[in-house]
Here is the input.
Amino acid sequence: MLQFTRAGLSRSSKALILILLLLSGCASLKDSYVEKFGSSVLRTVGLGPATSVFSASEGMVKAAQEMSREEEYYLGRAVAAQILSKYKRNEDPALNEYLNKLGLALAAFSEQPNTFGGYHFVLLESSELNAMAAPGGFIFITSGMLKAMPDEDALASILAHEIVHVEKRHGIKSIKEENLTAALLALGELGSSLACGPVMQQATAVFGAAVQDVVDTLLVKGYSRELEYEADAGALVILDRTGYNPFSLKQALDVLDASFVNNHTGWFDTHPGNDERRERAIAFAGENNILPDPVGVELRKRRFVKQIKSGQ
Amino acid sequence: MFKQPIRPCGHFKLNFLSPCFVRALYVLVYFLAFASATVSYEMAAAQEQGDRVVYVETKLAKVRSQPAHWAPALKDLSYGDKIVERNRSGGWLKVLLPDGSEGYLHESAVTLKVVVLKASVGLVGDVAASDIVLAGKGFSGEVEANYASDKSLNYEEVNRVEQYELPPTQIADFLREGGLNVAVH
Here is the structure.
């Protein structure tokens, strides 16, 4: 039995406690314990010079204060769980296969072909015109948006835009500063453990607040204009690399403008005005020697129309 | 202040506080260090000048036979796995596999930082702060489990979405049939 009386705590007891804490990840207890007893105890149990272990420990604390790709993945799963609680999936096999082939092909030409959990393209059953990306690689598009696109190249431009939101980690940038700070402070501890009840409750509360910020941005407020322009520019690059017509982005925006008369929700709530987006995208293309490439558009349009019809 | 006399280990009696137990831990830690050094030596034996070690930073990474997303997979690697990079070109790393053969990994699946798995915390050497990725910290599967238990969220659908997979060759065919580029970069 461990004795916790201040005077009577033996060296061997402290060694055991420290090892258990180091392995358990009960951070707050561990940090205070390392600070208090660390050097002598670590020497006792043969973990090498205390200075080496301490510098690694400080390093790990600092490393913990950055959101890792693994954490971004769990954040994205929670955002996806929220979206899939609000929208029903369209599970048509042919449409889902087509959507995922197209999306995964584009992702391979992005700056970040591999995310922690990979890219997943999800078709939502809704007449709303909308598309959104959760952190880590979950990309959603409504059946309304899919059917509103005139051809595969235009659909590709919408998906490429969403892939850039993932690639540039825009989801994390949408977390309110105070929640992000709280997350990094509260979660910047060395792991978490169900055994540490208060730490887990605090972590879960902070997690929930961060998830809600991302969901609000995706469904209600939208990203800042600058992030949208950045996503458009990145989409042009992906389209160009893949061989799609980069100027299909302009065509997609034209179609969305035409639909605005009848449909004011979804994309229109969360994306800036299309006029300035078109101007910025054209300027970016000019600066980066990205040219219109209509070769193959008709070929791809035929398979697009076939897929959309088969899914109706 | 905490000094205790060192006594020889006598008859067996399980006592977690005894000096015997501490010495046993001592032996265990040195054994782990020796085992780790042996593995490192085996990897180093096949290394050449200019090689460097990278860590897998995705849940799963496939080592491919060619520097292409659609090439056949030779081996699956997991988060935190350590692998030797031979060289890098066009976003692809040529890597050395444990059996001495070579394959290709895309650079977006790896990091030069040391990925520290939860079980290894405390056993890391003197590594700079900017060179560490802590696995299982913060927003982890444990936090998710706690979060999901409090809310009626559709994690079941999220899992179904994640399980959906397409063979890479089908994506290459899709690109080819659409008159698109098949070779990335």
Confidence is low (pLDDT under 50) at residues 1-56, 190-195 of chain A. Chain A has two domains: 11-64, 69-172+221-310.
